[in-house]
Amino acid sequence: MDQSMRFALGSIVIGILVLALKYFAYVMTGSIAFYSDALESSINIASACAAAGALYLARKPADQNHPYGHYKVEYFAAVLEGVLIVLAAILILRKVYMGLTEPYELDFSIEGIALNFLSSVINCVWAMALMRIGKVHRSPALQADARHILTDVYTSVGVLVGIALVWATGWQMFDPILAGIVALNIMWSGWKLMRESVGGLMDEAAPEEEQIAIRALISKFGDGALEAHDLRTRHAGHVTFVDFHLVVPGEMSVLDAHAICDRIEEGIADKMPGARVTIHVEPENHAKHSGIVVL
Prior knowledge:
Blueprint (H helix, E strand, L loop, with lengths): L2 H27 L2 H27 L14 H29 L8 H27 L3 H30 L4 H28 L6 H14 L5 E10 L2 E10 L5 H18 L4 E8 L8 E2 L2
Parallel strand pairs: 2-3
Antiparallel strand pairs: 1-2, 1-4
Keywords: Cell membrane, Membrane, Transmembrane, Transmembrane helix, Transport
Subcellular location: Cell membrane
Pfam families: Cation_efflux, ZT_dimer
């Protein structure tokens, strides 16, 4: 089991622990804001399960039906997380409406507030670790899970501030109003997550800085070629796909042209682990005199 999968499974365990702490905080205080916080944590567990399943499937080798691999399944998991986040927000808004129309009493239990604060600390530490591992392994599923958990942390901090305001002012309407603000923030977070994931499914190009790095590597390791053009990139999970046309002298042998391609592929793979490079070799009469000039 690799590191990313261990962290994905760890998110499930952390999610269950945090949910238990927040639920008991809600039971002790009766706060709708604490209820909204606990409900979001239940979505964290479902999201973590989706991320773990996606990571498992994404690492399956290519087969006859999926010759390019299963990498994009991570984006489906991230989209599912976004949908679950929006669903949680809708359920919270329903609870907010009930709180505004049906009076209820808050119990300012120190134990309940302490449990909610402890759950926030655990979530914050875990989210930071998860984001770091997600970036190292370039996993959309892990990074989406980390952002979801960080949203939960921000929510919890806001909820604690709101409970303090209710206690200080005696105005109990702060509690459902704050829960409503939390719900809207959660909904916005879910929308952004779905938008980013759909971008991956639609084969958006790699970020500009990454494309600049690829061009520099082609120029550096393409000695013997004349130019490279029509560079295309896309991400699929933790893998970056790169393809371009490489122009070589017309009299160059296939063996020598192949050696240049090998050198470029190795150079890109060394700087960008997991990259999949496809090169189309062309004779010099196909040169466009644009694109990447080989040094």
